[in-house]
Amino acid sequence: MTPAQPKPWLLLLSVFAIATCGLVYELIAGTLASYLLGDSVTQFSTVIGVYLFAMGVGSWFSRFFTGNLIATFIRVEFMIALLGGCSAALLFLLFGWSVSFRIPLYSIVFLIGALVGVEIPLLLRVLEGRFAFKDLVSNVFSFDYIGALLASLLFPLVLMPHLGLVRSAFLFGLINASVGLLALRMLRHELPQKTGLWLTGGLVSAVLIAGLLSGEKITRWGEVAAFPDPVIYAESTPYQRIVLTASKHELRLYLNSNLQFSTKDEYRYHEALVHPGLSRLPQAKKVLILGGGDGLAAREVLRYPRIESITLVDLDPAMTRLFSTNELLTPHNQNALNSPRVKVENADAFIWLGEPRGPFDFVIIDFPDPSNFSLGKLYTTTFYHRLRRSMSEDAAVVVQSTSPFVARKSFWCVDATLRASGLQTEPYHTFVPSFGEWGFILASNKPLSAPADLPKDLRFINEETLAQLPRFPPDMARIATETNHLSNQALVHYFEEEWSP
Known about the structure:
The protein is an alpha/beta fold.
């Protein structure tokens, strides 16, 4: 009796699956590299470049595979499943232990890319004779490109918000393993040795299932090695990885592995952010805070009884929820986010300001540093023009503006951009032990002439420190820079250049 022939369309569907998996591994590596190393533009560019180069190498070497091509294809699928599925977990774990993280990063990316490069040529040779050549090529590449589209949509909309990087990698490793097992089942009559392949596929699948079920624990193990203090809270959101660490003397918040504050000295940063401007605005009653989801800037604003309302706009609801409910954190922001004077809105500030709001008398911009184009747009003339429509005539705005010592061009680029937007600026800086020298820029429609009227219970800012803040030594003094427009994102390029290790 002649064995039933496999349905060729099922084999073509495997092209769709492996194309989706291949792009997901690439996106995971790029995202993880940008989380751990920062400088997302460079990380994605280099990861994509290495991955595509490796695919070319794999495609070229595929010509040397002879013998039973079906068995070779199945083995390649199992290898991709294991390496791709474990890639995010391996990289998280290696980050805390390797001397140079880029070596394992690009090695893993290269190996996955090379194996993915072998896949399609092998499958074309397996399918040869089952389709006319013109149909074979058009079908394979059609399914390949459609699979890539699916991956690009799934990754930001489904995988990152609901599974995170580690579990997403394990899930798509299982899909690769399933492709290998399906090919083994469908083409078993063309394989002389099947037992070893079945055992390999079963073992790889078991490892990936175990990884999928314990993905969050694996992420925690990696973070234990990566952070100096014990991790007491960690959450992956659609926007970022939130990690909170604790030691005997302090709590530290990290977003995408970047330190945001330490409870040991955050008061220096937040007092310097808020009071040099707000203390000189006796008429201010309505305040807008952009960013600042930790509620620490809001805590400082609430020290002024004259403030009637604070509108806080932060992109990530997980952040504002954490800092309004966590019993370890609310004492530090003095439960500011639950104050009846505070209204929290979770939105993209750039979009939120697309419509005129307010008017507000004082605006605090406490965004993360402009390490990528998505953040860089929040420091452009376009953004500041939108902001000015929501400011009252006598209003002022303060912008956290990175370190004028480490990133001198970046700092003065923010100043130049505010001035190009029609605002008058007063740059200043202070020392925060966790960060070093840190800079801020106070800007207004017209000069602020009122004397400072500071709250009485501040720990750092007083009349003496206020007088010192605007003084820049020669190595931090103003330099000429480009203006940061939406069309050039000059600030992001300055920031990458100055903060790159």
